[in-house]
Amino acid sequence: TMALCLKQVFNKDKTFRPRKKFEPGTQRFELYKKAQASLKSGLDLKAVVQLPPGESINDWIAVHVVDFFNRINLIYGTMSEYCTEKSCPIMSGGLKYEYRWQDDSKYKKPTKLSAPQYMCMLMDWIEMLINNEAIFPTRIGVPFPKQFQQVCTKILTRLFRVFVHVYIHHFDSIINMGAEAHVNTCYKHFYYFIREFSLVDHRELEPLVRMPQGWGG
């Protein structure tokens, strides 16, 4: 099974990606450990997302964007066999919402893609951004660019669409795989984070507004 896992990681057709790692000894690594410890302690997720006293907002956002990318990438990867050109010819969230792809390089205009194509383009695009030192600087003393939070808003808005698609079109698969609690926790954490820092326009959240949000709102 290890060989199979490795094959999936390195097979570009699968949306598994090698995880983006935080370098030990860096401020970002310490923040990541702090965030993970809070999560594991079972603290209220609304409290977990709050900026720790004395920490930089951009560092905190950077850590979460990378972590959510890793986690959502894995969630989609584990169920990508159920999301095919045939089952999902359009990247959508139900009948009312359709997402088109635009990236200013290959697709200069919003373009209709199948869900698996969209996901592949999305994960490649995010990976390129978070590995770009000019946008996500990792060296101490190197400032974040002025447009950093705008870039993060775009990344998080598109990652939210992965939840929309997965919940609306593949919820049965999530339940069959026994992954419902895991996906729900990741979604809640993501939702509270973007709300805490107003990082995603509320109109983008509409497709999942009917989610069982006894915990949300």
Give the fraction of residues assigned to helices: 40-55%
- What is the count of structural domains? 1
N-C termini distance = 41 Å
The CATH homologous superfamily name equals MOB kinase activator
Provide keyphrases for this structure.
217 residues; mainly alpha; Butyryl-CoA Dehydrogenase, subunit A, domain 3; two-stranded antiparallel ribbon; 7 helices; 2 strands; disordered N terminus
SSE map:
Layout: H1 2-10, H2 27-40, H3 45-48, H4 57-79, E1 92-93, E2 97-98, H5 115-130, H6 148-176, H7 180-196
Antiparallel strand pairs: 1-2
Helix pairs in contact: 2-4, 4-5, 4-6, 4-7, 5-6, 6-7
What does this entry look like structurally?
Zn(2+) binds at residues 83, 88, 165, 170. Keywords: Kinase, Metal-binding, Transferase, Zinc. With 217 residues, the chain is mostly helical. The protein has a single domain (2-9, 59-208), classed as MOB kinase activator (Butyryl-CoA Dehydrogenase, subunit A, domain 3), CATH 1.20.140. 52% of the residues lie in helices and 2% in strands. It is built from seven helices and two strands; from the N terminus they run H-H-H-H-E-E-H-H-H. The chain has helices at 2-10, 27-40, 45-48, 57-79, 115-130, 148-176, 180-196, and strands spanning 92-93, 97-98. Strands 1-2 form a two-stranded antiparallel ribbon. Helix 4 (57-79) runs antiparallel to helix 5, helix 4 (57-79) runs parallel beside helix 6 and helix 5 (115-130) packs across helix 6 (148-176). The radius of gyration is 17 Å and the shape is globular. The relative contact order is 0.14. Residues 1-16 and 213-217 have low confidence and may be disordered.
